[in-house]
Amino acid sequence: MVDKGQVIRLCRSLLRAGRQLPDYNIREYAKRRTFDGFRMNKNLTDHSKVEKAYAEGKKQLEVVERVVKVYLAYPPKTKNIMELKLH
């Protein structure tokens, strides 16, 4: 059975993993997607649905961690307009 602490740890893990993404747009998408997913499921009470949502969150965490590894292995050659420093 999934308890509240596990859900909070999963949310924090997803947010931490998303902050490691080097691209601004993907980083913001990951953050928005995390918050939206947890808001959407915050009122779940059925244990089977909670377990299913938690398992989906764990899968999403694995996906984000894989994407971070790929981005770190093959960084983009140009910077995003949001990351350029204007002088």
UniProtKB/TrEMBL annotation:
Record's superkingdom?
Answer: Eukaryota
Which InterPro entries would you find in this protein's record?
Complex1_LYR_dom, Complex1_LYR_LYRM4
Q: Which residues form the Complex 1 LYR protein domain?
A: 6-63
CDD domains for this protein = Complex1_LYR_LYRM4
Name recorded for this polypeptide: (rape) hypothetical protein
Q: Which Pfam families match?
A: Complex1_LYR (PF05347)
**Single Gene Ontology BP term?**
iron-sulfur cluster assembly
